[in-house]
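ok so for the tutorial part 2 we go from a plain amino acid sequence to predicted C-alpha coordinates. step 1 is just haveing the sequence, like this:
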Amino acid sequence: MTKYTRNHRLGLMPAEAKVIGSKDRGFIMGIRVSNWRTYVEGINATPQTLFEDIAEELEARDIAGLHINRTVHKEGGLFSRQRWYLVVQRQEYLFRISALPFSRGIILSWFLEERLSLFWRFAFVVPAIGKLLIRMFRPDSFARIDRAWAFQSLVHGVVLDVIDEHCHVSGVRDQLMDDDSPLLADFHGRALPNGQ
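step 2 — the prediction. this is what the C-alpha coordinates look like for a chain of 196 residues:
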Protein backbone atom coordinates (compact mmCIF):
# COMPACT_ATOMS: atom_id res chain seq x y z
CA MET A 1 0.00 0.00 0.00
CA THR A 2 1.27 3.45 -0.86
CA LYS A 3 1.90 5.70 2.11
CA TYR A 4 2.15 9.45 2.08
CA THR A 5 3.27 11.80 4.82
CA ARG A 6 3.51 15.54 4.68
CA ASN A 7 4.93 18.27 6.91
CA HIS A 8 4.10 21.25 4.74
CA ARG A 9 3.29 23.52 7.67
CA LEU A 10 6.65 23.08 9.40
CA GLY A 11 9.50 25.46 8.84
CA LEU A 12 7.82 28.75 9.68
CA MET A 13 10.19 29.91 12.32
CA PRO A 14 10.32 32.82 14.75
CA ALA A 15 11.59 36.05 13.21
CA GLU A 16 15.04 35.62 14.76
CA ALA A 17 15.47 32.14 13.26
CA LYS A 18 14.19 33.09 9.82
CA VAL A 19 17.25 35.20 9.07
CA ILE A 20 19.63 33.14 6.96
CA GLY A 21 23.20 33.43 8.18
CA SER A 22 24.66 34.38 11.55
CA LYS A 23 23.68 37.67 13.19
CA ASP A 24 26.62 37.34 15.58
CA ARG A 25 29.15 37.42 12.76
CA GLY A 26 27.30 39.97 10.64
CA PHE A 27 26.77 37.34 7.94
CA ILE A 28 23.18 37.60 6.76
CA MET A 29 22.23 36.54 3.26
CA GLY A 30 18.46 36.68 3.24
CA ILE A 31 15.14 35.94 4.89
CA ARG A 32 13.34 32.61 4.71
CA VAL A 33 9.86 33.34 3.39
CA SER A 34 8.41 29.82 3.46
CA ASN A 35 9.19 26.17 2.93
CA TRP A 36 7.50 22.87 2.13
CA ARG A 37 8.39 19.20 2.24
CA THR A 38 6.81 15.88 1.43
CA TYR A 39 7.70 12.20 1.28
CA VAL A 40 6.64 10.29 -1.83
CA GLU A 41 6.92 6.52 -1.53
CA GLY A 42 7.35 4.18 -4.50
CA ILE A 43 8.50 6.77 -7.02
CA ASN A 44 11.19 5.51 -9.43
CA ALA A 45 13.20 8.67 -10.02
CA THR A 46 16.57 9.98 -8.98
CA PRO A 47 17.04 13.48 -7.59
CA GLN A 48 18.91 14.47 -10.76
CA THR A 49 16.02 13.27 -12.94
CA LEU A 50 13.53 15.27 -10.86
CA PHE A 51 15.77 18.36 -11.07
CA GLU A 52 16.04 18.03 -14.85
CA ASP A 53 12.27 17.67 -15.24
CA ILE A 54 11.53 20.61 -12.91
CA ALA A 55 14.06 22.81 -14.72
CA GLU A 56 12.68 21.79 -18.14
CA GLU A 57 9.10 22.55 -17.06
CA LEU A 58 10.06 25.94 -15.59
CA GLU A 59 11.98 26.90 -18.75
CA ALA A 60 8.94 25.95 -20.83
CA ARG A 61 6.91 28.55 -18.91
CA ASP A 62 9.12 31.29 -20.41
CA ILE A 63 9.39 33.41 -17.24
CA ALA A 64 11.31 36.66 -17.72
CA GLY A 65 14.42 36.97 -15.53
CA LEU A 66 14.37 33.35 -14.34
CA HIS A 67 17.76 31.75 -13.58
CA ILE A 68 18.10 28.02 -12.91
CA ASN A 69 21.23 26.19 -11.80
CA ARG A 70 22.41 23.45 -9.47
CA THR A 71 24.55 23.89 -6.41
CA VAL A 72 26.08 21.74 -3.69
CA HIS A 73 25.79 22.39 0.04
CA LYS A 74 27.25 20.40 2.89
CA GLU A 75 24.72 18.54 5.03
CA GLY A 76 26.44 19.65 8.21
CA GLY A 77 30.01 20.31 9.27
CA LEU A 78 33.30 20.37 7.42
CA PHE A 79 33.51 16.62 6.73
CA SER A 80 29.83 15.95 6.12
CA ARG A 81 28.41 14.69 2.84
CA GLN A 82 27.42 17.07 0.09
CA ARG A 83 23.89 17.45 -1.18
CA TRP A 84 22.69 18.78 -4.53
CA TYR A 85 20.04 21.49 -4.78
CA LEU A 86 18.21 22.94 -7.74
CA VAL A 87 18.33 26.74 -7.39
CA VAL A 88 15.61 28.79 -9.09
CA GLN A 89 15.96 32.56 -8.86
CA ARG A 90 13.92 35.52 -10.08
CA GLN A 91 14.59 39.06 -8.89
CA GLU A 92 15.16 38.99 -5.12
CA TYR A 93 13.50 35.59 -4.60
CA LEU A 94 15.38 32.32 -4.60
CA PHE A 95 14.17 28.73 -4.33
CA ARG A 96 16.39 25.90 -3.12
CA ILE A 97 14.77 22.62 -4.14
CA SER A 98 16.06 19.38 -2.63
CA ALA A 99 15.34 15.74 -3.43
CA LEU A 100 16.73 13.09 -1.07
CA PRO A 101 16.31 9.35 -1.60
CA PHE A 102 14.96 7.85 1.61
CA SER A 103 13.76 4.31 2.27
CA ARG A 104 11.57 3.37 -0.73
CA GLY A 105 10.86 6.89 -1.85
CA ILE A 106 12.08 10.47 -2.04
CA ILE A 107 11.84 13.37 0.35
CA LEU A 108 11.24 16.47 -1.73
CA SER A 109 11.51 19.92 -0.16
CA TRP A 110 12.03 23.54 -1.05
CA PHE A 111 12.89 26.76 0.72
CA LEU A 112 11.89 30.16 -0.62
CA GLU A 113 14.22 32.98 0.42
CA GLU A 114 14.28 36.70 -0.16
CA ARG A 115 17.86 37.76 -0.88
CA LEU A 116 19.09 40.95 0.76
CA SER A 117 21.45 43.60 -0.56
CA LEU A 118 24.58 44.44 1.43
CA PHE A 119 22.89 47.52 2.95
CA TRP A 120 19.93 45.51 4.24
CA ARG A 121 22.21 42.76 5.53
CA PHE A 122 23.91 45.44 7.61
CA ALA A 123 20.55 46.85 8.76
CA PHE A 124 19.51 43.45 10.12
CA VAL A 125 22.66 43.32 12.27
CA VAL A 126 22.25 46.77 13.88
CA PRO A 127 19.65 46.32 16.65
CA ALA A 128 17.68 49.56 17.12
CA ILE A 129 18.61 51.54 14.02
CA GLY A 130 18.20 48.52 11.78
CA LYS A 131 14.63 47.86 12.91
CA LEU A 132 13.75 51.51 12.40
CA LEU A 133 15.24 51.53 8.88
CA ILE A 134 13.43 48.34 7.99
CA ARG A 135 10.06 49.67 9.19
CA MET A 136 10.56 52.95 7.32
CA PHE A 137 12.05 51.75 4.02
CA ARG A 138 11.21 48.02 3.77
CA PRO A 139 7.75 47.59 5.25
CA ASP A 140 5.69 44.58 4.37
CA SER A 141 3.76 45.64 1.32
CA PHE A 142 1.10 43.98 -0.77
CA ALA A 143 3.43 44.15 -3.78
CA ARG A 144 6.24 42.26 -2.01
CA ILE A 145 3.86 39.68 -0.61
CA ASP A 146 2.19 39.24 -4.02
CA ARG A 147 5.55 38.82 -5.81
CA ALA A 148 6.65 36.20 -3.29
CA TRP A 149 3.30 34.41 -3.44
CA ALA A 150 3.16 34.40 -7.24
CA PHE A 151 6.70 33.02 -7.58
CA GLN A 152 6.05 30.47 -4.84
CA SER A 153 2.79 29.33 -6.44
CA LEU A 154 4.36 28.94 -9.87
CA VAL A 155 7.39 26.93 -8.74
CA HIS A 156 5.37 24.88 -6.26
CA GLY A 157 2.85 24.03 -8.98
CA VAL A 158 5.63 22.86 -11.28
CA VAL A 159 7.12 20.70 -8.51
CA LEU A 160 3.72 19.10 -7.87
CA ASP A 161 3.18 18.51 -11.62
CA VAL A 162 6.56 16.78 -11.92
CA ILE A 163 5.85 14.59 -8.87
CA ASP A 164 2.43 13.65 -10.29
CA GLU A 165 3.98 12.74 -13.63
CA HIS A 166 6.64 10.55 -11.99
CA CYS A 167 4.00 8.88 -9.80
CA HIS A 168 1.97 8.10 -12.92
CA VAL A 169 5.01 6.72 -14.78
CA SER A 170 6.05 4.65 -11.75
CA GLY A 171 2.54 3.23 -11.40
CA VAL A 172 2.14 4.81 -8.00
CA ARG A 173 -1.26 6.08 -6.95
CA ASP A 174 -1.45 9.88 -6.88
CA GLN A 175 -0.18 10.81 -3.43
CA LEU A 176 -0.70 14.56 -3.49
CA MET A 177 -3.83 16.24 -2.21
CA ASP A 178 -5.38 19.66 -2.63
CA ASP A 179 -3.91 21.07 0.59
CA ASP A 180 -0.31 20.77 -0.55
CA SER A 181 0.30 24.51 -0.43
CA PRO A 182 2.70 25.84 2.17
CA LEU A 183 2.11 28.72 4.50
CA LEU A 184 3.59 32.02 3.44
CA ALA A 185 5.13 33.93 6.33
CA ASP A 186 5.34 37.65 6.29
CA PHE A 187 8.75 39.15 6.73
CA HIS A 188 8.43 39.68 10.48
CA GLY A 189 7.45 36.15 11.45
CA ARG A 190 3.63 36.19 11.57
CA ALA A 191 1.95 33.45 9.55
CA LEU A 192 -0.51 34.52 6.88
CA PRO A 193 -3.26 32.06 5.94
CA ASN A 194 -3.25 30.98 2.31
CA GLY A 195 -5.29 33.28 0.12
CA GLN A 196 -4.77 36.39 2.24
